[in-house]
Specification:
Chain A: This is ABC transporter ATP-binding protein. The complex is a heterodimer of chains A (about 350) and B (about 270). Chain A is built from 8 helices and 19 strands. Chain A has about 350 residues and is of the alpha+beta class. Chain A folds into 2 domains: about 230 residues, P-loop containing nucleotide triphosphate hydrolases (Rossmann fold), CATH 3.40.50.300; about 100 residues, OB fold (Dihydrolipoamide Acetyltransferase, E2P). In chain A, a hairpin with a 2-residue loop joins strand 1 and strand 2. Chain A starts with 11 loop residues before the first strand and ends with a strand. With about 270 residues, chain B is an all-alpha fold. Chain B has a single domain, classed as MetI-like fold. The radius of gyration of chain B is 22 Å and the shape is globular. Classes of the chains: A alpha+beta (about 350), B mainly alpha (about 270). Chains A and B meet through helix 2 of A and helix 7 and helix 8 of B. The structure holds adenosine-5'-diphosphate (ADP) and magnesium ion. The site of adenosine-5'-diphosphate has 11 residues of chain A, from strand 2 and helix 1. Adenosine-5'-diphosphate (ADP) binds next to strand 2 and helix 1 of chain A.
């Protein structure tokens, strides 16, 4: 799968979807078009409405407002058992009274697929997730990772139009989680199944997705490719949630040409902005140079393949990450000047908090 | 047992002794060759077991009890399962009040229930009938079936049913293939407890039973009012033997620990 082009008709469309529980608004004004084959992540902190949105797509919750369309068809009146979506739950939700093969076969039985075809497809699905030979195991006798794979096979074997994953990897330990991420991405690419992943792990969202939907308090903060959302976060929230960032208080000064000024650092300002602004730069995009924002190294921490500097500047504290390339690095207490390329920063109106 | 100190061991020992001693004594007395209640010191005899055959009322009462227990526990379970599922799945208005209502027979003394049902069924012209007995038993055994079924249903991960639904299961298929198998331990436990409650009840039943609808406990109660001979012990021994067989079968089929604890299958 290459990055899907925006011109293809969307497979799944959410149009100003909202959900309120009583007076509590869990999801608000959620609009998204998912292209066929796309891998989308809903990323946000716990309680921001990711699961609620997924449940509305799955049909287990009815939207308070808005419409959801699958292949152009309004899903509102379609029962969840008739939507043909594959779902992997956080708890895996494997049927404990069935073997791995029976679990995977369940959806095919519901579709009245013939016994011989069923056996063949179940075998292939289990082999695809690396569980050939585990057909007769019961879930309780399998590890978390193996149960996760069975759940994935069970959701994929019915050839769903969209695969929905709700924090599927959060119960696995770090090493297994990384393996499963790679495997999930490979399987998704091979099958070309349109996928929506719910996660609060920014690393997971960045490494797996074609596009990320950054959410906060029931609202979409930003939709974009992983690179977009990381390098050009649209809001303070998006910037903070997708990895570390530095927020400097800066000003737009002068007119024609206006310049953006942060202490001793300045660059041509984009048109249309005035007054105090917040300037955001990722720690790894800041370098030490001859001129720029003056500061002092408060702490220097060695982290193997890179150095981490905590600096104090007149525009606020700064974190700088430099690769450990063997060159001499400023020491603690040393005066430094911080500089970055204008294209590596993002600007927001208003002073930094 | 290694974690238990000597005091705890003594307590357990005493407890088990108090539980088992009456049963053992009753079974021993049943084999006495004498004509009065005594331990069989002069050898064992089966005369009191043969004597049961001379009192067909006992055999008839046994069948009444068995039928009553089987029917009342069955009806209780058939009502308890949908009730428990509805209460755990849907935002039923007045859920707390409904649950309290379903469990209320537990809190009313059986003597009171007996008198109340007697008046009620007599007024309906159903006094002393098997139907009246059955209705009363359904009411008193229902809480047992309901409580254990409710525990199993509320312990069920809702994601399991949602997974089945997303795979295309709906309506009765969902119930038969996923929901019921998962709550079955609770249902079977509830059914077994309900059956035992019905089979065992004397206090309420003695008000409602008439000649022909006497249950085994009622028949035995009436018998010992007039006779003090070992016949009731041999009948008791038979009931104990049948209970043991019942428990062994349940254990083989199901695992007794699961039935008695009412746990889910996972
Ligand atoms: N059934 C419900 N009733 C009331 N509030 C709910 C319900 N489900 C979720 N919420 C609330 O909606 C918000 C979003 O929840 P959720 O979608 O589960 O968040 P996330 O999956 O992003 O952690 C939370 O504040 C949560 O408390
Ligand atoms: Mg969630």
């Amino acid at each position: 799968m290459t990055t899907p082009s925006r011109s293809t008709t969307p497979l799944l469309e959410l149009d100003r979807v909202a959900k309120a529980f009583g007076s509590h608004v869990a999801v608000e004004d959620f609009s998204l078009a998912v292209a066929p084959g796309e891998f989308i992540s809903f990323l946000g902190p716990s309680g921001c409405g990711k699961t609620t949105t997924l449940q509305m797509i799955a049909g287990f919750l009815a939207p308070s407002r808005g419409t959801i369309r699958l292949e152009g068809r309004d899903l509102t009146q379609v029962h969840p058992s008739k939507r043909g979506l594959g779902i992997v739950f956080q708890s895996y939700a494997l049927f404990p009274h069935m073997t791995a093969a029976e679990n995977v076969a369940f959806g095919l039985e519901m579709q009245r697929v013939s016994r011989s075809e069923r056996t063949e497809r179940v075998r292939a699905a289990l082999a695809m997730v690396g569980l050939a030979g585990y057909e007769d195991r019961h879930p309780r006798r399998m590890s978390g990772g193996q149960q996760q794979r069975v759940a994935l096979a069970r959701a994929l074997v019915i050839r769903p139009s969209v695969l929905l994953l709700d924090e599927p990897l959060s119960n696995l330990d770090a090493k297994l989680r990384e393996e499963m991420q790679i495997e999930l991405r490979q399987i998704q690419r091979n099958l070309g199944t349109t996928t929506i992943l719910v996660t609060h792990d920014q690393g997971e969202a960045l490494s797996l997705s074609d596009r990320i939907v950054v959410m906060s308090k029931g609202r979409i903060e930003q939709i974009g490719t992983p690179q977009d959302t990381y390098e050009r976060p649209a809001s303070a929230f998006a910037a903070q949630f997708l990895g570390k960032t530095n927020d400097f208080s800066a000003r737009i000064e002068g007119a024609s040409p206006a310049r953006i000024v942060a202490g001793g650092w300045s660059a041509p300002a984009p048109v249309g902005m005035r007054g105090p602004v917040t300037l955001s730069v990722r720690p790894e995009r800041i370098g030490f140079s001859e001129e720029g924002l003056p500061g002092r190294v408060a702490a220097r921490i060695f982290q193997g393949n890179h150095w981490l500097f905590q600096c104090e500047t007149e525009c606020g504290p700064a974190i700088v990450v430099r690769p450990n390339d063997g060159l001499p690095q400023p020491g603690e207490g040393e005066a430094v000047r911080l500089a970055w390329r204008p294209e590596d920063m993002s600007l927001r109106a208003g002073a930094a908090a | 047992m290694s974690r238990n100190g000597p005091l705890a061991l003594a307590f357990h020992g005493l407890f088990v002794t108090f539980m088992l001693a009456p049963i053992v004594v009753v079974c021993l007395v049943a084999f006495t060759p004498e004509g009065f209640l005594s331990l069989p010191t002069n050898g064992f005899s089966l005369r009191w077991f043969r004597a049961i055959a001379d009192y067909p009322e006992f055999v008839h009462a046994f069948w009444v009890s068995l039928g009553l227990g089987a029917l009342s526990s069955l009806v209780a379970v058939l009502v308890a399962v949908p009730a428990a599922l509805a209460l755990t799945r849907y935002p039923v208005p007045g859920r707390g009040a409904l649950q309290a209502l379903f469990l209320s027979p537990l809190m009313i003394p059986h003597v009171v229930l007996g008198v109340a049902f007697l008046r009620f069924f007599t007024a309906l012209g159903l006094g002393g009938t098997f139907l009246a007995l059955l209705a009363a038993h359904i009411v008193v055994v229902f809480p047992f079936a309901f409580r254990l079924t409710l525990a199993a249903a509320s312990g069920l991960d809702p994601a399991l049913e949602r997974a089945a639904i997303s795979l295309g299961a709906g309506g009765f298929t969902l119930f038969r293939r996923v929901t019921l198998p998962l709550i079955l331990p609770g249902v079977v436990s509830g059914w077994a407890l309900a059956f035992i409650q019905s089979f065992d009840d004397l206090t309420m039943t003695v008000f409602l039973a008439a000649p022909g609808t006497e249950t085994l406990p009622v028949r035995m109660f009436l018998y010992i009012q007039d006779n003090i001979d070992p016949l009731v012990t041999s009948v008791s021994a038979c009931v104990i033997a049948i209970t043991m067989v019942f428990l062994v079968v349940l254990d083989r089929l199901y695992g007794l620990d699961r039935v008695l604890a009412g746990k889910g299958s996972h």
